[in-house]
Write a structure and sequence with these properties.
The chain has about 325 residues and is α+β, with helices and mostly antiparallel strands. About 30% of the residues lie in helices and about 20% in strands. It has 8 helices and 10 strands. It has helices spanning about 5-25, 105-120, 125-130, 195, 235-240, 250-255, 280-295, 295-310; strands at about 35-40, 50-55, 60-70, 140, 145, 180-185, 205-210, 215-225, 230-235, 260-265. The strands form 2 sheets. The chain has a 6-stranded mixed β-barrel. Strands 4-5 form a two-stranded antiparallel sheet. A hairpin with a 2-residue loop joins strand 4 and strand 5.
């Protein structure tokens, strides 16, 4: 005789899994709940701008590829490796107020020679002026760049420990090789940037995630940059987003560490001015807690979908 099948028992046994499946299907995707706030001038972006969105709490979000910022690391600039061809991680023109813009090959050669001659002469004021080194990048002490450390110039970041008065102390800055850090546009004289006007400053916490992945990275706003640029981060931040296991060798390699389009969320007003976030042991838990409270990966993915519908490229 064929045994009778108790259909009710089967249904009851399957009910927990059916319920879970039903709940998974019925659970609505989290809403992004962020809206366009302003258009940030961005010379590298299609259309020369990048939309920045905001939520009700004032947190800001954008999606952009990430170029590399090397400032603050011990290996950033070297006078004798001006172009970063062997060991320096940056081209020294990038530490100059004009970035050597518009110079032809003879002009670039003259700038290199002028800089190396000034360094050899211990930076006399008239020769230093000709180099156009920017004091916001290469800090000056007693009117001269800080003494070289292991053959490299000291480079500064806008985020630093305020109570450290020695501008030549590298430990007071964000180390681009160790700390995931974002760069935001600086303000113009007498005119706050759109970020500053919305209470986003250097020192605020950040969550970032490549739009083709689902692994978030916690970071800090570590520096300010050109008013017409958005989408730049430290070597450490880009390296982790790219899955790099070793430091770059020189500037030539650094230039290849550009991260594809990445979701970036800045937590407005999250900075700690008394004890700024300079290392991952404090950044990761504090930014991670804020990111989870905000909605985590699921909400980030929802925002990515909404943002790309509005600006696909």
């Amino acid at each position: 005789m064929t045994p009778r099948i108790n259909i009710l028992s089967l249904l009851l046994a399957a009910s927990p899994f059916m319920a879970q499946g039903s709940q998974a299907q019925d659970a609505p995707a989290p809403k992004c709940a962020m809206k366009p706030a302003f258009q940030q001038a961005d010379k590298d972006a299609p259309g020369k701008f990048t939309p920045v969105w905001a939520d009700a709490a004032g947190n800001l979000m954008f999606i952009e590829k990430l170029n590399v910022n090397t400032d603050g690391t011990r290996r950033s600039y070297a006078v004798d490796d001006f172009w970063g061809q062997t060991r320096a991680l940056n081209n020294l023109c990038n530490a100059m107020s004009d970035a050597c813009a518009g110079l032809d090959e003879p002009g670039l050669r003259a700038r290199r020679i002028a800089t190396q001659s000034a360094a050899q002469a211990n930076w006399p004021a008239d020769q230093l002026a000709k180099t156009r080194l920017s004091p916001s990048i290469i800090p000056l002490k007693n009117g001269k760049p800080c003494p070289a450390v292991d053959g490299y110039l000291v480079s500064a970041t806008a985020l630093h420990i305020a109570k450290v008065t020695d501008v030549c102390d590298l430990n007071s800055y964000v180390d681009a090789l160790k700390t995931p850090a974002l760069v935001i546009p600086k303000s113009k004289p007498g005119q706050p940037s759109q970020f500053q006007a919305r209470n986003v400053r250097v020192g605020d916490l950040v969550a970032a995630m490549r739009i083709d992945q689902s692994q978030p990275l916690m970071a800090v706003v570590g520096d300010s940059g050109p008013v017409d640029s958005l989408g730049e981060a430290s070597i450490a931040m880009n390296g982790r987003l790219l899955g790099k296991a070793a430091e770059p060798v020189n500037y030539k390699e650094v230039k290849t560490w550009v991260v594809p389009r990445t979701f970036v969320l800045i937590f407005a007003g999250s900075r700690n001015t008394a004890q700024p976030y300079l290392s991952t042991d404090r950044i990761d838990p504090d930014a991670g807690e804020r990111f989870q409270a905000w909605g985590g990966v699921a909400r980030a993915q929802s925002c990515v979908a909404d943002y790309l519908k509005a600006k696909p490229n």
